[in-house]
């Protein structure tokens, strides 16, 4: 860990931030969609292609061995990053979405039967809704939804009422991408386990901000994406408890996931390779390690503290704008603020802010059922990362005042 | 005026602004002045898909000319509808179908607004052309 956190130094590590958009310095507040990448990640990517590009696992030549070693080093790093017990429990995927689909199509298909129940929450991303709808429909299982209150907190007593012997899988988001709510996932897991249900945690938004300890949580599955943790796109992690992964059928067939193939019978490879069919995304996986190193070197607690400061500052500043309503006022939040401005469409806000060089996200944020819950079509959302500053938040506030004047 | 004469007029008007702030103000102004669409036309089938805001477009024939009416719940998009209506409404189906809308590029919209498909500019334009095509095949 470094002793002092200086955002000026941090910003130097992110070359993309140093540019103007429509003549104004870029303010990047779309970090919940994807974070920018530090130089070390960009360099790791180019170093891979400049120095040791080769296909992994099968080669005996030097480049193949180096590529394999670096690819597997990311697995070790990812294991530490979420404090998994064993490296075999780390499966590389394309991202959160693929991880959830993998679990639904393997564990879900194997274990769900007609009348069983899967519980999700009212603030899930479409990625943690649709895969469950698909497998539930196929199996005749029932999807149940934990409701949320006006603040954006899960109603835990309603959750307990939903749990029963029929509950086979609980899949909930750790941190909501639309509201910023940090859900009490440890408690959710403990309660589900009392009924013998397995729990998948969607860690897409949590992993860059909170210390993750899958053993302490006792999560059965935990999924996240590299690109939201300062790493490249196209890589993600599925953590699964070993005994579960061992018992699950493979997801896709092909090279790498097999031990022996004959036309009569194929035997599958050991974990984690059983779930990594075909040539994986080697380059991005290798560079993903640089991202995880970057975050751990600075320290999540240091990052979290700074981001919380930004959240508090932004919440106070935005609330001072007349007619602005923050959607999502949960007790525990990460640095995401969704808001609506009375009488002004979020699309107009997005276009006008972009003209001021400010990147926010507008729309339903892939959480349409959640928008329905709040009776809105969408919000505009500012989400902060460690390289953002209070001055940037001031610019957002000024931008919104201007929009209000013009459109209000 | 022909479609191209109207386009040239719009290009002239936009040339008065040296930055997009001004252009947006102008588009917003058009949006605010666009008469609201009668609620009987705000139907599901008049909604244009592919926009982040809701956009309704209605077309009808009046004396061989296609008349367009439209609205959106977002102001900038309403301004864009207003511009497209000003250019295309009141012309024959054939003229509309073969019109080359160069003003979009010339006022700088292609680099600015049109980049994000989400604003639905092209979806609107496509729908207007489809109406015109439908009317021209009907009359032939
Ligand atoms: C909470 C949540 N879950 C899942 C996803 C999907 O992640 P990916 O697109 O990387 O698969 C996202 C991304 O926006 C998210 O915010």
Structural account:
The complex is a heterodimer of chains A (408) and B (140). Chain A is 40% helix and 17% strand. With 408 residues, chain A is α/β, with parallel strands linked by helices. Chain A folds into two domains: 7-30 and 300-407, Aspartate Aminotransferase, domain 1; 43-296, Type I PLP-dependent aspartate aminotransferase-like (Major domain) (Aspartate Aminotransferase, domain 2, 3-Layer(aba) Sandwich). In chain A, strands 4-10-9-8-7-5-6 form a seven-stranded mixed β-sheet, sandwiched between helices. Chain A has a four-stranded antiparallel β-sheet with strand order 13-14-17-16, covered by helices on one side. A two-stranded antiparallel sheet of chain A has the order 1-2. In chain A, strand 13 and strand 14 form a beta hairpin. The model of chain A has no long low-confidence stretch (mean pLDDT 96). By secondary structure, chain B is mainly alpha-helical. Chain B is built from six helices and two strands, in the order ααββαααα. Chain B has a two-stranded antiparallel sheet. The longest helix of chain B has 19 residues, at 121-139. The model of chain B has no long low-confidence stretch (mean pLDDT 89). Chains A and B meet through helix 12 of A and helix 2 and helix 3 of B. The site of pyridoxal-5'-phosphate has 13 residues of chain A, from helix 4. The site of pyridoxal-5'-phosphate (PLP) has 13 residues of chain A, from helix 4.
Topology:
The complex is a heterodimer of chains A (408) and B (140).
Chain A: H1 7-12, E1 20-21, E2 24-25, E3 27-28, H2 39-52, H3 62-81, E4 90-93, H4 96-111, E5 117-121, H5 130-139, E6 142-146, H6 156-162, E7 167-173, H7 185-193, E8 198-202, H8 214-217, E9 221-225, E10 236-240, H9 242-247, E11 258-261, E12 266-268, H10 282-298, H11 300-319, E13 324-327, E14 336-341, H12 346-355, E15 358-359, E16 361-363, H13 368-373, E17 379-383, H14 390-407
Parallel strand pairs in A: 3-15, 5-6, 5-7, 7-8, 8-9
Antiparallel strand pairs in A: 1-2, 4-10, 9-10, 11-12, 13-14, 14-17, 16-17
Helix pairs in contact in A: 2-10, 3-10, 4-5, 11-14, 12-14
Chain B: H1 3-14, H2 20-33, E1 55-62, E2 65-72, H3 75-88, H4 93-98, H5 103-106, H6 121-139
Antiparallel strand pairs in B: 1-2
Helix pairs in contact in B: 1-3, 2-3, 3-6
Cofactor (chain A): pyridoxal 5'-phosphate
Catalytic activity (chain A): (sulfur carrier)-H + L-cysteine = (sulfur carrier)-SH + L-alanine
Organism (chain A): Xanthocytophaga flava
């Amino acid at each position: 860990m470094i002793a002092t956190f200086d955002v000026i130094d941090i910003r130097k590590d992110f070359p993309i931030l140093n540019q103007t958009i429509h003549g104004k310095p870029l303010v990047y507040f779309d970090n919940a969609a994807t974070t920018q990448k530090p130089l070390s990640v960009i360099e790791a990517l180019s170093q891979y292609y400049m120095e040791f590009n080769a296909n992994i696992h099968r080669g005996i030549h030097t480049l193949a061995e180096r590529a394999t070693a670096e690819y597997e080093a990311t697995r070790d790093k990812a294991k530490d990053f979420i404090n998994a017990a064993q490296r075999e429990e780390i499966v590389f995927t394309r991202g959160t979405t693929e991880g959830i689909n993998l679990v639904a199509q393997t564990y879900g298909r194997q274990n769900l039967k007609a009348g069983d129940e899967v519980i999700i929450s009212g603030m899930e991303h479409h990625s943690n809704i649709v895969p469950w709808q698909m497998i539930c429909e196929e199996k005749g299982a029932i999807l149940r939804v934990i409701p949320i209150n006006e603040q954006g907190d899960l109603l835990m007593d309603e959750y307990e009422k939903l749990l029963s012997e029929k509950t086979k899988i609980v899949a909930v988001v750790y941190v909501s991408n639309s509201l910023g709510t940090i859900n009490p996932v440890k408690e959710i897991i403990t309660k589900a386990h009392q009924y013998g249900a397995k729990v998948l945690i969607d860690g897409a938004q949590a992993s860059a901000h909170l210390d993750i300890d899958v053993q302490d949580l006792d999560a059965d599955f935990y999924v996240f994406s590299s690109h939201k943790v300062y790493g490249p796109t196209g890589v993600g992690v599925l953590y699964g408890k070993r005994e579960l992964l061992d018992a699950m059928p493979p997801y896709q067939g092909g090279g790498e996931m097999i031990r022996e193939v004959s036309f009569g019978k194929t035997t599958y490879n050991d974990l984690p390779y059983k779930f990594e069919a075909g040539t994986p995304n080697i380059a991005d996986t290798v560079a993903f390690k640089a991202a995880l190193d970057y975050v751990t070197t600075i320290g999540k607690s240091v990052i979290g503290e700074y981001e919380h400061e930004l959240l508090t500052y932004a919440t106070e500043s935005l609330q001072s704008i007349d007619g602005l309503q923050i959607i999502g006022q949960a007790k525990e939040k990460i640095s995401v603020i969704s808001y609506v401005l009375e009488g002004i469409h979020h699309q107009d806000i997005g276009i006008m802010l972009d003209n001021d060089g400010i990147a926010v996200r507008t729309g339903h944020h892939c959480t349409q059922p959640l928008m329905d819950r709040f009776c809105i079509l969408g919000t505009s959302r500012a989400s902060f990362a460690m390289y953002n500053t209070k001055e940037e938040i001031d610019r957002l506030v000024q931008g919104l005042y201007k929009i209000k004047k013009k459109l209000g | 005026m022909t479609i191209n004469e109207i386009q040239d007029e719009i290009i002239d008007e936009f040339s008065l602004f040296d930055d997009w702030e001004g252009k947006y103000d102008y588009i917003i102004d058009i949006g605010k002045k666009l008469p609201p669409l009668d609620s009987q036309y705000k139907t599901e089938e008049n909604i244009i898909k592919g926009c982040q805001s809701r956009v309704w477009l209605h077309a009808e024939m009046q004396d061989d000319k296609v008349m367009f009416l439209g609205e959106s719940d977002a102001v900038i998009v309403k301004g864009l509808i207003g511009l497209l209506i000003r250019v295309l409404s009141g012309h024959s189906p054939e003229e509309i179908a073969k019109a080359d809308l160069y003003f979009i590029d010339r006022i700088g919209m292609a680099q600015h607004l049109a980049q994000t498909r989400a604003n639905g500019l092209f979806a609107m334009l496509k729908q207007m052309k489809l109406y015109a095509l439908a009317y021209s095949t009907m009359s032939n």
